Amino acid sequence: MRQEKIVEYLYAKKQAIAPKALAAEFQISERTLANDIKWLKEIGANEGFTVERIRSAGYQLKVLDNDRFRSYLMQSKQQEQVDHSSPQERIKNIELLLLFHEEYITMQQIAEWLDVSLSTVKADIKQVEQFCTDYELSLFSKAHYGLKILGTESKKRRAILYLIRNTLHTPVLTEKYKEFNFTFDEAALRHFLQEQLQKNQLKISDIVYENIVQHIRLLSFRMLQNNTLSNDEAAETTIIDGYERLTEELVAYLEETYDLVFSNVEKNYLEEQLRGKFTVLENGDGNQQLKQAIEKALEHVDRQYHTEFRKDQGLANALLMHVAPLLQRLYTGHQLENPIIEDIYTQYANVFNVAMVFINELNKDLDTDISKDEIGYVAIYFAASLEKQSNQVIDDYQKIAVICSTGGGAAYLLKVNLERLFNNAEVETFALNEMDQIDASFDLLISTVPLEQADFEIPIIYTKTILSQAEITKIEKDLNLLRESQNKVFDVHQFILSLFADEWFQIKEQSEDYLTLLENEGAHLEEQGWVKQGFKQSVLNREKMIDTIYQQGVAGPHPMEQAAIKEVIDVILLKKPLIYREKKVRIIFLINIKKDHLNLHKEISRLMIKMMDDPMLDTQLTKITNFQDFKSYMKSLMKEG
Q: Are 464 and 448 in contact (CB under 8 A)?
């Protein structure tokens, strides 16, 4: 069924999709995707379509025969069944069905629609109720009639967009929405929107552009079904000329094309969707005030995390351009979804807290919870700043000693490669018997053999004689962690391994719920004097706000603000996985490091990502029976990069 889903996905997008993005959407390799596309081209000739490779753009669906293609889609839908192995997929489909149905629908009808048992649907309803609560809606039950979702139209649209955009690869849609898909010309809308953006000199990112197209698409569908906003759902706003002109042009286009009639309330709603999504800073006074507010917020972050973000003028400028529309989105209640949020959240967990603290400090008085997706956008800016700082670390070293016991050509090759890496530094090589010539005038010692730290007054890192790209990357990591660490001898792999300890490793056959487990472990760390008081509650607050459960059941909980007295990663391996917020938890890395160790947190995240990427993870975890088995597995992951 995956190939059919790829066709439906490309048809819905109405544009070329890059192979990497398409493969990621379906969680397959680009090689597998290429094979799928080849198969689709073969069958497409008889089904009224083909998939073309557009140069520098990606794969795009081209319909050759509308009747045959529509027949193919109908047959595909009839054959499609909800994935019984994925309760999350099934539950989200139930939510979508209820949102699209304006009349009552019984649980038996839902069961038949999704081809599952009535008892399965009954078991899922509790999570549907929670979803409704999260989106300020309510699930109403009426005897002999069934279920119905109640709430304002604006809240329903927000929930529907979330489900279609982020959760379901192939949602089970109603016949009315399928019919709408065939009549709605998204390509024409995109062309018109691009013309208007150029005409009004408005700048917009690709992600936000997609967001607006989806908003307009859903707005059109809901209005065609007579699901319109009530008079109290969209307040009058202060008009910005660019937004006003764009809104008027879009309304005129949609009214003419689809025979819609926009009320003032719907016009205001559409304008609010456009508001806060463009880079527009026209007010000079407001611009200056925002600059000062960002500077103060960065100063607050630096005090809390012992960082130097305030010195990065490029970061401040980038945040200024991003924060202006972000604050407007928060005020109007139309936050953006982030299609790459899981990648950001996993790879840059070290700066996610930083982004949250920055936003909260910047806008203390706003009584609105910022979404995980919006935090992710801000976190990227802080991650980029850290990367920039990492690159600058190399320039701090002006004179480097290198010990290479093999000497000769190997030592010369190592020297040349290191000079290319440290292009501003003087690099000298020494044999072991020349160590006494290395004095405090050197900034750094790089060695290919083990040394006694007591013999030197300068920091030491280790490398191999022949520098591969992986080894060069490791040197860069070592330098970043060396700057954060009090140790003078540094090796990133050895340092991370030293954070694991037998006394802080346990295997649980049976366990309490996820939060209770974290509460007990946090309390234990406090009692043993490894963390400052308040660590436990900070971890719980962090998880309740936005959990740190990643792919494959790997979790990396940590406090809002690190408070280690002694650094350690408390590891809990669960023989029977826990479920928290519909996510499986198999292994927990409770991270306890010092507050200024953002690069260390990043390297811990890298190790966890290596674990998530292991196709044999379940088998590997099953094999672990003691701490030594666990440590051996960690070493094997490090060897892979």
A: yes
